[in-house]
Specification:
- The chain is mainly alpha-helical and 83 residues long.
- The chain has helices at residues 20-36, 51-57, 60-69.
- It has one domain (20-82).
Length: 83
């Protein structure tokens, strides 16, 4: 067994998206986190995410449009009070 230097789960709350828009905003938020926190400079380089799999099944332009059309992920604050 290997000990982690940092917590694996931080501020985890279960959440059920209310609609497709809500789902996509949160998906973009999760996909963007490794980039936002400086773990990678390109999202496809973060291998602990399903972003790479989605990139393989959808066109790059489709994902670029998803990030463009659902920009709210940039301002999303995931806090316990939101649930």
């Amino acid at each position: 067994m290997t000990d982690c230097a940092l917590p694996v789960w931080w501020n985890y709350w279960d959440y059920c998206p209310r609609n497709e828009h809500d789902y996509t905003v949160r998906q973009n938020y999760l996909f963007n986190n490794p980039f936002k926190h400086g773990y990678v400079t390109d999202l496809k380089d973060y291998h602990f995410s399903s972003f790479q799999r989605l990139l393989e099944t959808q066109e790059r332009e489709t994902l670029a449009r998803q990030f463009q059309e659902y920009k709210e992920y940039r301002y999303l604050l995931v806090e316990e009070d939101n649930f």
